[in-house]
Amino acid sequence: MNTLRLRRAAIAATAAAVLPFALTACGDDGKDNASDASSSTAPSNAAEDGSASDDPGDSMAMDKPFGTACSAVPEDGAGSFGGMAKDPVATAASNNPALSTLVAAVKKAGLVDTLNNARGITVFAPTNDAFAKIPKADLDKVLNDKATLTKILTYHVVGQKIAPAQLANGSFATLEKSKVTTSGTGEDYVVNDTARVVCGNVSTANATVYIVDTVLMPK
Asked: Which are the contacts of 176, defined by CB distance < 8 A and separation ≥ 6?
């Protein structure tokens, strides 16, 4: 009888000693599972953060020059985008070989100082190829008629800075006192339904320039 009591006491003591360790082990497993669950959510949060960070980059894209002809602009020097940004618009244009005919016309019309001293303007600048579309006899006649030349050139100038987004469906008063219209989307815009913007949103010290492939004619 005494032997049976001793055995029961030993079993009870053993159970009392083992049970706390078993409970502790279960508690540790619960913590590990919680930690694993928390870790499994981390990639999802990181992915959400990554996708959200893409938006600022997209919104900044149109802060830079755009268009097929922009690749022809020098990477450095006075004729580069950085160089043009330091000079007023007529001076900046004179450093771009593709605008040499426009620059010559501006000088003939006596508009260099007018354009360089203006503040916050937009210039739709025709390329040399744009002027080449005009029959030579007609172009020579215009270049030698200061009043007509001034009328045409000031029609290319708007008295405010125009952001790319404003070109989507725009109508703007020019220094010539009539209006130009713009339309398009993304990086594809036209002026007066005829002149395509080939390099847009070019900054100079006092103006925003949109280089176009056709000379605009006031109505």
From this structure: 151, 152, 154, 155, 157, 218
